[in-house]
């Protein structure tokens, strides 16, 4: 589908002055917690927003476009000062209804599990309506509550959130499917501040060869490759958590680390500062939009794995961009 098939009155959010080729914010004004505002055609409008995401743009809502009860919000803001303070994130696995990263002895555990479960259901209902084509084939990944202040955190380089990077999951390979994330700033008084860089299809031709794409492609073509997948297959057959990682996933994991360690990329002027105000929500493909969190605490986030088959602009997906550069398939 052409990205120019629909003409709507989108407007860039005022906090950002984008330059050509950079990721931009588009403020969504025709969807609220009550749903689509008439006279929008929800199907066409959804497809238009999906295409903007796949171009590397960030969809921004000045408010929270799904149900988030005040009691739940207050509880999350308060609980950070007790049991959560010693953990990086609290994560919630919606398919299992389980919560991780919280002190087992915490009196807040049951309440927090219930709040995260309700959050997951409500934000997913919103995303399924707002981005209709994706919901048909998506996989619900984890949700998280990010309680700690990001500014000044002392973390090893690969774990630093304040360096520009694209996302890849070591334990959950996607084989070319996409990582879509919905964030909400719960902080009642302070913005969450990001940097964003040029999208994947712009930076990959410049950086992927130096990041090891050609070696990865050679491995993908190798007749020995089936042997390299044995550990993953054996592991999953035995019920062990050994990921069956495709060449695409191996490259994307390495690219995450490469970008964080690349001083010239980090210092490049081709980046934008985004301030997400209290209660705002934003949606972004974090596997294609380089991002860094400079400051902020108290955020909710939900991840969805979007099927390649449901993309509006598959030629802009990292897998297709890389395969074009490498001249070979990088999938399992
Ligand atoms: Fe990230």
Task: Furnish the topology, listing elements before pairings.
Layout: E1 11-12, E2 25-27, E3 31-32, E4 35-36, H1 42-55, E5 58-61, H2 70-79, E6 90-93, E7 98-100, H3 109-130, H4 132-135, E8 139-146, E9 178-185, E10 192-197, H5 200-207, H6 213-221, H7 225-228, H8 230-237, H9 247-261, H10 263-267, E11 271-276, E12 281-285, E13 291-295, E14 299-306, H11 318-326
Parallel strand pairs: 2-5
Antiparallel strand pairs: 1-2, 3-4, 5-12, 6-7, 6-8, 8-14, 9-12, 9-14, 10-11, 10-13
Helix pairs in contact: 5-11, 6-9
The structure holds fe (ii) ion.
Structure description:
- By secondary structure, the protein is α+β, with helices and mostly antiparallel strands.
- The chain has a domain of 223 residues: Sandwich (Jelly Rolls).
- Helix content is 33%, strand content 20%.
- The chain is built from 11 helices and 14 strands.
- A 9-stranded mixed β-sheet has the order 1-2-5-12-9-14-8-6-7, covered by helices on one side.
- A hairpin with a 4-residue loop joins strand 6 and strand 7.
- Helix 5 runs parallel beside helix 11 and helix 6 packs antiparallel against helix 9.
- The chain is globular and about 55 Å long.
- The two termini are 27 Å apart.
- The N terminus is likely disordered.
- The site of fe (ii) ion has 4 residues, from loops.
- Fe (ii) ion (FE2) binds next to loops.
């Amino acid at each position: 589908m052409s990205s120019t098939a629909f003409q709507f009155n989108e407007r860039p959010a005022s906090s950002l002055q984008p330059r050509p080729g950079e990721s931009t914010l588009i403020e969504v004004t025709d969807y609220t917690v009550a749903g689509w505002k008439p006279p929008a055609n929800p199907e066409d409008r959804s497809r238009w927003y999906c295409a903007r995401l796949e171009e590397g743009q960030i969809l921004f809502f000045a408010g929270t476009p799904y149900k988030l009860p005040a009691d739940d919000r207050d509880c999350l803001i308060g609980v950070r000062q007790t049991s959560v303070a010693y953990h990086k994130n609290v994560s919630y696995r919606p398919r299992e209804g389980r919560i991780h990263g919280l002190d087992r002895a915490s009196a807040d555990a049951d309440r927090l599990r219930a709040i995260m479960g309700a959050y997951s259901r409500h934000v997913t209902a919103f995303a399924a309506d707002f981005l209709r084509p994706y919901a048909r084939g998506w996989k619900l990944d984890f949700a998280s509550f990010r309680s700690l202040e990001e500014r000044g955190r002392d973390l090893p380089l690969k774990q630093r959130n304040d360096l520009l990077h694209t996302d890849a999951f070591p334990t959950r390979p996607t084989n070319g499917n996409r990582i879509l994330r919905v964030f909400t700033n719960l902080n009642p008084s302070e913005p969450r501040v990001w940097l964003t860089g040029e999208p994947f299809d712009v930076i990959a031709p410049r950086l992927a060869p130096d990041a090891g794409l050609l070696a990865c492609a050679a491995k993908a073509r190798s007749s020995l490759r089936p042997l390299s997948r044995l550990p993953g297959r054996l592991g999953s057959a035995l019920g062990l958590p050994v990921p069956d990682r495709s060449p695409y996933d191996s490259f994307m994991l390495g690219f995450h680390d490469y970008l964080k360690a690349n001083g010239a990329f980090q210092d490049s002027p081709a980046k934008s500062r985004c301030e997400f105000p209290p209660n705002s929500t934003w949606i972004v493909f974090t596997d294609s939009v380089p991002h860094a969190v400079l400051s902020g605490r108290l955020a909710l986030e939900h991840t969805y794995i979007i099927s390649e088959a449901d993309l509006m602009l598959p030629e802009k997906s990292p897998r297709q961009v890389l395969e074009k550069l490498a001249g070979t398939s990088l999938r399992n």
